[in-house]
Amino acid sequence: MAWRSALLIDPVASDDPREDFAETFRFFDPDEPALRVGDLSAQRGDGIFESLGVIDGHPQEVGPHLERLAHSAGLCDLPAPHLGQWRSAIARVAAHAGAGENVMKLLLSRGVEGQPIPTAWITLASAPDNTRSRRDGVDVVTLDRGHALDVPARAPWLQLGAKTLSYAVNMAAIREAHRRGADDAVFVSSDGFVLEAPTATVLLRLGDRFVTPEPSAGILHGTTQISVFSYLGRRGVETAYETVPTATLVDADAAWLLSSVRLAAPIAAVDGVAKAIDRALTDELNAYLLSPRD
Amino acid sequence: MAWRSALLIDPVASDDPREDFAETFRFFDPDEPALRVGDLSAQRGDGIFESLGVIDGHPQEVGPHLERLAHSAGLCDLPAPHLGQWRSAIARVAAHAGAGENVMKLLLSRGVEGQPIPTAWITLASAPDNTRSRRDGVDVVTLDRGHALDVPARAPWLQLGAKTLSYAVNMAAIREAHRRGADDAVFVSSDGFVLEAPTATVLLRLGDRFVTPEPSAGILHGTTQISVFSYLGRRGVETAYETVPTATLVDADAAWLLSSVRLAAPIAAVDGVAKAIDRALTDELNAYLLSPRD
């Protein structure tokens, strides 16, 4: 991973009428210290984020990512982001991307403890080479997320539907997958339903239908999954959001993990049981996902 | 809150034989940027921490806090901290405390993404005035932690027994308590057992016995609670770790939240039902907790 650019944003109120935000932006060197230790992102993982793919200089799906950022902000009692300011910042940073695949992160923290202003920044870095995951797939293990399917809706303080910076569990799940000889994890509810991967959405092919676990207070609505559903829909393929028992993941005719940077990675094994990879469709999906999308 | 001091630590291996660590420490201005945006504490809440009280210059219970830091590091696959180096750093920072109550935070993050070295730092700040909480108590609401009592032990990747920087849920629970007109929350398991408060341990008096929920993979072993148990034990009072049904919190003869900085805060109400405060014992406990402890 190599840094391409980094921009600090001085967040304005969501109804700020200005059209030019230049004076609220400041490029900085990401290898130099930029955050104070009092920042609640570092002290308590108290903030939210989004990761976007940037392909040949084009930031993918900016609208859906900003919508989700705003949704997460609401769930976390953070001030609503000014979407025009963020759009402008994203465009400025993307201009530093050059050719190839990059990953852009949008971050919004609750700010420095005791001060009322959020901290906001964007980073841009070269993306890891995901060729192999896209072609040969990923082996996954299922891991209990610890709660029943209906819990997140009745316990919103658990913030399970927000993309927060309190992401240590997601990283620990991936380490546990590696310990078990797999590449990635799929979280399942304690009552036996498929949720999502630590950093991706699960997509299943069941016969002619494409199904993803219904987004809810506990399952992030995947921007890449939305994009894939719209692509499949235009081709007349049936897509559906459903409650998916864990056994269906094992039995599905094919399955993928969808995310903004790795894109469509076919699932090659679930808990050690091999799964057929639909290479033609996977290649087609990734060709689409690598094309400019808004 | 006013900063008193801040120290960056260059962590050494846990078996480093040196006796003087001066060259691994660097005091810095906590109002100036000190962390890179690539630091995984800020990007993903991926790290651990401890909060200590520092009373009239004396850091309280350094040993138990360092033990717990090492325990959290193990649970999170972080390199074991060198306890001698941390002790030395704590002593240097505590020298800047002066009179009165201060709060010291020890932080250990996984470091900058893609680099193998953890980031470590200590901050020291004046403590908030907790006189009123200690005297008049705190009203609490019970909030579902989302999982059954036995989940954390069989799903260690959820890291529920580690004091991680992914602390946004704890902060969201306290905001939810405020929304409900209370001061603080007590987490209960989805199968109806008392766990802990977002930043404190629950202590109950049941007749002549003092009981706290049994520490487990899902309940942090409280350093202040250990200290109180040892104090009560020396006075011949019976103390016990038990599985505590939620109803017992409501029915207990008295209850407290114990933590390193607020110390013993009597619980004055649970979900709107008032609870008698044992002021004499509370004052006695806080006098003890404010005395120098190692």
From TrEMBL, chains A, B:
The keyword Methyltransferase is annotated on this UniProt entry: no
Family statement drawn from the similarity comment of this UniProt entry: Belongs to the class-IV pyridoxal-phosphate-dependent aminotransferase family.
Classification via InterPro entries: Aminotrans_IV (IPR001544), Aminotransferase-like (IPR036038), BCAT-like_C (IPR043132), BCAT-like_N (IPR043131), Class-IV_PLP-Dep_Aminotrnsfr (IPR050571)
GO BP: any one term: carboxylic acid biosynthetic process
Protein name stated in the entry: Aminodeoxychorismate lyase
Organism from which the protein derives: Microbacterium testaceum
Gene3D superfamilies associated with the record: 3.30.470.10, D-amino Acid Aminotransferase, subunit A, domain 2 (3.20.10.10)
Keywords: Lyase
Keyword check for Lyase: yes
Single annotated GO MF: lyase activity
